[in-house]
Amino acid sequence: MSEISREILSVGDLNRAIASSLEERFDTVWVSGEISNFKAYDSGHWYFSLKDEEGQIRCVMFRGRNGQVGFLPQSGDLVELAANLGFYVPRGDIQLTVQSMRRAGMGGLYEAFLKLKAKLAKEGLFDAERKRDIPSHPRAIGIVTSPQAAALKDVLSTLARRAPHIPIVIYPTLVQGPDAPAGIIAALHAAAKEAEQGQSEVDVILLVRGGGSIEDLWAFNDEKLAYAIAQSPIPVVSGVGHETDVTIADFVADLRAPTPTGAAEMAAPRRDQMLQELDAIAQALLQRVSQRVEREAQTLDQLALRLSHALPNPDRMREQIGNWQQRLNQAWMVRVENWKRNQNHYQSQLEMLNPQRTLERGYSVILTQENETLQAVRNPRDLKVNASYQVRLAEGEAQIELSAVKSN
Predict the structure, then answer these.
(1) Among 212, 253, 261, 338, which residue has the least CB neighbours within 10 Å?
(2) pLDDT at res. 295
(3) Phi-psi region of 105 (alpha: psi -120 to 50; beta: other; left: phi over 0)
(4) Contact, 180 vs 217, CB < 8 A?
(5) Mean pLDDT value of segment 114-136
(6) pTM score, whole prediction
(7) 168-172: strand order across its sheet
């Protein structure tokens, strides 16, 4: 085949062919090295080079990926990258498209961090629905940290500047080392117990510590501590490390602050701002009271006018009294007549039921004495010979004794 018959590729076609070949040849690779020429653009994307003593390679990490890193890289940082090998066609450069990044040497700890984070997220410990609101005006603020921590001084100075009227309760504990998680948990339990027993008025807890390496902050990635924060009856604000440091405690806490000082600012209202708010409320109250007084004064004037038109007229009142007296007399007479009619009716009923009326019509009744009472004889079989009976007639009564009884 002659040279002139060979296919001639454009530079773009060649670069695209190289890019396609590299993408087919290499899957995701882990690469370690030192960051240099790091630039974070306004778009949110990161561009830098990864180098060691034998060479360097360009890298890009897009915004959707670098938001999960948890720290802002700086030139000179040693890191480990998970990336796809690619070829940037316009410039003809081989580059790494970074998918994830961690500090060099921290692979095991970082993987443990990601594993625990995924587990707790699945259990719902990070859900926004379970997070409680931080009180805007806490009665007291609790601080869980080491008394020797530099962060404590910053937090106390911030609280003293913003809200010197709010009491502070410090719950001392270790914040670094293998015994730190148990100490922090005990401090949270102590704060909850005091609040439950009424020994303190702590409405919010600041869990704070200064910055450090991932090993320094590892106590705040403890699983038991995560559950203790989630179960705390008092809202917790996490202010651990610098803004780029992220721990499990930050995800579980009700509110995450970028720094210990930021935690103090989120928990305590500014005193001058509160005074301004109180002044505004006082002015509003005065205005409301003034408006209410004016309305009530107008109402009082209207009532006084109505009262002046409603003053009693003696002639009118005497006329009304006469009418009421006449209506009362008429009602009384009607009531008396009704009583009389009822009395006559009842008297007629009584007369009809009077046994004397029956005797006057020619009847008589035979009475016999039983158990010291007189009872009427109703059955002829009850009449006994030689027995004594009383016969009651219309005009009197007689005692009789029967010599013979013949029943029909």
Answers:
(1) 338
(2) 86
(3) left
(4) no
(5) 91
(6) 0.49
(7) 168-172, 140-145, 202-209, 236-240, 255-256
Q: Which residue has the tokens 């008394």?
A: 147
Provide CB contacts within 8 A for 124, sequence distance 6+. 130
Q: C-alpha distances in angstroms, 175 versus 10, 44, 139, 213, 404?
A: 62, 33, 26, 13, 128
Mean pLDDT (the chain) is 85
* 278 three-state secondary structure: helix
- Mean pLDDT, range 105-118, rounded to an integer: 77
Alpha carbon 331 to its chain centroid, in Å, reads: 65
Model confidence at 65, pLDDT cuts 50, 70, 90, reads confident
Phi/psi zone of residue 115: left (φ > 0), alpha (ψ -120 to 50 degrees), beta?
Answer: alpha
Residue 95 has pLDDT above 80, yes or no: yes
Alpha-carbon distance of 172 to 99, in angstroms, equals 40
Question: What does the DSSP 8-state code read for residue 10?
Answer: P
End-to-end Cα spacing for the chain: 162
Residue ranges of the domains in the chain? 9-105, 114-269, 279-309, 312-353, 359-401
DSSP label at residue 272: H
CATH code of the domain made up of 114-269: 3.40.50.261
Tokens of 214: 């991932």
For 19-28, 210-219, 287-296, 371-380, which range has the lowest pLDDT when averaged over its residues? 19-28
Check pLDDT > 80 for residue 25. no
Question: Does the pLDDT of residue 313 top 80, yes or no?
Answer: no
Q: How far apart are CA 387 and CA 365, in angstroms?
A: 16
Strands in 89-235 per DSSP E:
93-103, 140-145, 168-172, 202-209
Does residue 242 sit in helix, strand or coil? Answer: coil
Q: How do 78-88 and 29-40 pair as beta strands?
A: antiparallel
Compute and round to an integer the Cα radius of gyration of the chain: 53
CATH number belonging to the domain at 9-105, selected among 3.30.1330.90, 3.30.2010.10, 2.40.50.140, 3.50.50.60: 2.40.50.140
Residue 107 binned pLDDT confidence (cut-offs 50, 70, 90) = low
